[in-house]
Amino acid sequence: MTMQKFPKDFLWGGATAANQLEGAYQADGKGLSIADALPGGPDRFKLVNEPNFDWTIDEANCTYPNHRGIDHYHRFKEDIALFAEMGFKCYRFSIAWSRIFPNGDDKTPNEAGLKFYDQVIATCRSYQIEPVITISHYEMPLNLVKKYGGWKNRQLITFYETFARTVLTRYHKQVKYWMTFNEINSALTFPVMGQGLVAANGASDKKNIYQAWHNQFVAGAKAVKIGHELDAELQIGCMLLYATTYSYDANPVNQLATLEQNQAFNHFCGDVQVRGEYPAYTNKLMQKYGFSFNELEIGENDLALLKANPVDYIGFSYYMSSTIDVADAEREQASGNLIGGVKNPFLKTSEWGWQVDPIGLRIALNELYNRYQKPLFVVENGLGAVDKPDDKFHVQDDYRIDYLREHIQAMAGAIADGVDLMGYTPWGCIDLVSASTGQMSKRYGFIYVDLDDQGNGTLNRYKKASFEWYKQVIASNGETLA
Ligand code: BG6
After folding, report:
1. Ordered alpha helix ranges (H), 231-297
2. How high is the pLDDT of residue 4?
């Protein structure tokens, strides 16, 4: 098959998040993050429903997979060497806020935490791997949740600003690409990880979610401003969870509901962060929950700050599409990446029920580019699957290769459509702890990590079949996909 060429400087790489792979959750002065308080197993998100959840970490009765991660904190050199062997041009990772400001509200940063990222960045650079940093990826300091009630509290803007200024100042010479908040829009359905809003501090009141978003928009705009003042060439993006959304049928009722779901979920946060202003449909979204924009706490200079500091590019995750049918309440529901929808009869699903839809990625890229005309970056994509290693720990993960190939073909199609696409960092390029389930057995990586859901294993790393395959993809700049 003749492929459309990817741009010469296309950023091929992989993506991770600190809380899901570093482990060492109390090493060298690190404080607790929200992810450290999430157990593995069925109780992982008890805090979503329990109004009296008190954040006790009960090591005696629960496992906490994020505490150990895959011990990347002590093995990052080996891991980045493997990424380099695959030919990564970039590596997306996040900085654990609680390594730098253990309580979030500390006056001075923890130098030992910064020293860790000094080494990670230097190791990337030694292989000419471009670091791509998510400033905040589902790992806010737990203290900011317990003491301040999470992002609905405006004081968090100052704490984030201090954090962002610290890391941007320290790393702007080595790191060109940044993102402010991972999957900021995911809070609409799941405000726990990104906003620190749980049953006990008001997650069920949508006004809190919108207030938290406003505070995050302002904090993100401050990060953009700080970054550009340090170096006008820095590229600072937003990061959205994008699920291409279809109407189940031609029923106008479903079409309208699809439009509204797109506004509420896929587009609202991007509209503010990319265009620098609240969209015309803002009040409609809020009125659905019984409040209006005027009721939010908005600082005097907030709107001017947003307008003056839009993001440079749009980073987004894409795993699946979603289908809407409000006309038929009986329709079978689908699982998904924090949003579901109904089952789409044209799509297969992953072992976790996520609907696999490569064409949906081409549509997403077109929708986003037509809407914003700014460069796009697919910073997460991949298949969570159970891998079965042989007795030499080899995994023949053809199913993962098939998934990635089809999504790369979809990206090539979108580039041919005229979309400006900067790069591709498949999720969990090395196996890591699943954000939603806390499982190790839900694997995404090119590199197998010998660790099971109960924490047993050597933590040794092994290359899967997809490792060699992705190496060829990168070496051929997306031409060789067989
Ligand atoms: C994204 C998150 O939603 O999906 C990642 O940014 C997460 O942190 C990824 O790991 C895959 O989801 P899961 O639940 O399978 O780990």
Report:
1. 252-261, 268-275, 282-287
2. 52
Residue 293: per-residue pLDDT: 98
Atom of ligand 1 nearest to the CA of 338: 3
Ligand 1: which atom is nearest the Cα of residue 436? 14
**DSSP one-letter code for 90:** E
Report the residue among 66, 140, 317, 349 best suited for mutation to probe ligand 1: largest number of ligand atoms under 8 A from its CB.
317
Please calculate the CA angle 204-208-211 and round it to the nearest 5 degrees. Answer: 155
Please state, in angstroms and rounded to a whole number, the distance separating the CA atoms of residues 45 and 409. 36
CA of 14 to the centre of ligand 1 (A): 13
Evaluate: CB of 381 within 6 angstroms of ligand 1: no
Instruction: Report how far residue 336's alpha carbon sits from residue 380's, in angstroms, rounded to the nearest whole number.
Output: 15
Identify whether the C-beta of residue 38 lies closer than 8 Å to the C-beta of residue 66: yes
The verdict on residue 26 lying in a domain is yes
Calculate the CA dihedral of residues 380, 384, 388, 391 and round it to 10 degrees: 30
Cα angle for residues 168, 172, 178 (degrees, 5° grid): 65
Ligand 1 lined by 434 (C-beta under 6 Å):
yes
Is position 1 within any domain? no
Task: Tell the residue nearest (CA) to atom 9 of ligand 1.
Answer: 435
What residue ranges in 182-337 does DSSP mark as E strands?
Answer: 235-241, 245-247, 313-317, 322-324
Count of domains observed in the chain? 1
Crossing angle of helices 206-230 and 155-171, rounded to 10°: 30
Question: Which residue do the tokens 């006309």 mark?
Answer: 327
* Whether this model's pTM surpasses 0.70: yes
Per-block mean pLDDT, blocks of 10 residues, the chain (482 long): 77 98 98 96 87 87 95 98 99 98 98 98 98 98 97 98 98 98 97 95 96 99 98 98 97 97 98 98 97 98 98 98 92 79 94 96 98 98 98 98 98 97 98 97 98 96 98 97 94
- Across the strands, what pairs with 133? 93, 178
Domain, as residue range, for 419: 11-475
The answer to the question of residue 57 being in a domain is: yes
CATH number at residue 217: 3.20.20.80
- Is the distance from the beta carbon of residue 442 to the nearest atom of ligand 1 less than 6 Å? yes
